[in-house]
Amino acid sequence: MIIFIVGGAGYIGSHMAKLATKSNFQVIVLDNLSTGHEDAVSYGKFEFCDILDSKRLNQLFVEYQPDAVMHFGAFSLVEESINDPYKYYHNNVAGTLSLLRAMIDNNCLKFIFSSTAAVYGSPQYIPIDESHPTNPINPYGKSKLMVEQILSDFKAAYGLNYISFRYFNAAGHDREGELSERHDPETHLLPIIMQALNGQRERVVIFGNDYDTKDGTCVRDYIHVEDIASAHLKGLEYLQNENCSSTEFNLGNGTGFSVQEVINITKSLSRKEFKVDISERRPGDPSTLVASGIKSKKELKVHLEFPNLEDIIKTLL
Q1: Strand, helix or coil for residue 155
Q2: CB 3.0-4.6 Å disulfide test: which of 73, 143, 153, 208 passes with 281?
Q3: Which of 88, 140, 167, 211 is catalytic?
């Protein structure tokens, strides 16, 4: 089975390419390297491609005739999306439309979309299940929800079979230590902590310690990147059934960990200290975001290899 992994030079995409290759899929990585790294494509064949380049996309579809597409090629910084929404709608929405057009034109009708918990906005209840109202509060989340709505229309009109995975906080590295998380700038908590441990950053900043949580810091749901990749293969298996229902699935741990807990556990495991500063809350940060993973466990048989935060952090040390 031939799979296009769009954005496969990025953090989650490169882990996906590794697992799919080891699972005997023929992997073709498409990436424009705007945020990805070509040296991260150590599994699969790399093809430079911007998904807004419809001519190039069509050439690749004709050449390889993929059976399915996994799409990780989005911009994903919330603050940047607020400051530059055009960039996000142009790439995340128009780019995905260009990709879907190439798929339809070449009769490739299996699609797995990398969505986000940001489609839910501020939670009305915890844990968040797939029935929770979608009300994104920034252009990043809005761009992802727009694509989900497009996918529903493409299912009805063209017979596209799809799964939309709504991630919570992806974390960790592959067990062999071949791949890593290399965002620039880095905005994710665990990589920031690792930079502080390694002397690449002076301190870790906690944005707010007066939330209505057990220690006053925000609570988030962390899921290991290999568990995300494994769930995608389960999703691909699900899509092999032509009578399957195209739908959305949350991908999370189901357990929340506070910022302070993450810091304390990392210090304990590493036996190292680093400076921690308290700053003001950031606008739009909910106090708690925790997923309900019941649907993915029931319908896709998703099983987490890294259910504990300690195990996730150990893959980084």
Answers
A1: helix
A2: 208
A3: 140
User: Is residue 181 pLDDT above 90, yes or no?
Assistant: no
Please, what sign has the CA dihedral across residues 79, 81, 82, 87?
A: positive
What is the H or E stretch that residue 3 is in? Answer: strand 2-6
Across all residues in the chain, what is the average pLDDT? 95
Q: Is-above-0.90 flag for pTM?
A: yes
- Yes or no: say if 44 and 66 are a contact pair by the CB < 8 Å rule: no
Is 140 marked active-site? yes
Asked if 138 contacts 78 with a C-beta cutoff of 8 angstroms, the reply is yes
Do residues 305 and 224 touch, judged by C-beta distance below 8 A? yes
Find the helix packing angle between 96-105 and 54-64, rounded to 10°.
40
The total of other beta-carbon atoms located within 10 Å of residue 212's CB is 8
Tokens standing for residue 207: 């944005």
In the chain, the domains with their CATH numbers are 2-170+223-251 (3.40.50.720), 178-221+253-291+306-314 (3.90.25.10)
pLDDT digits (tens, 9 = 90+) for 99-155: 999 999 999 999 999 999 999 999 999 999 999 999 999 999 999 999 999 999 999
Cβ pair 291, 254 in contact under 8 A: yes
